[in-house]
Amino acid sequence: MENLKNSSLYKYNRSINLDKIKVYQVQCIDFSNWLGNNFTKDDNVIVRMNIAGAEYEVLKKCINDGTINLIKKLLVRWNYNKIDSIKELNKLITPTY
Fold first, then answer.
1. CA distances (Å), 5 to each of 16, 18, 20, 33, in order?
2. What pLDDT was estimated at residue 1?
């Protein structure tokens, strides 16, 4: 790959210099499924997350399915500036219990 300054898997990312024409397929995992299949509440799970705006969707799913309770310490870089609008941001951060 050429030397890209920004990349994202999040479709609403508005990073400067993000090339929305060139698309690369990358392997991804369902984080909450992986978390639930590999850890229990007895484990000392520490998560450091910086995923270019997608942290809202990932954590919302973890909250909704309860896997958030497996995490003892959560460090997140909140990329709110990469979300196109406040309306979209609110949809991402509102839990759907």
1. 9, 7, 13, 30
2. 46
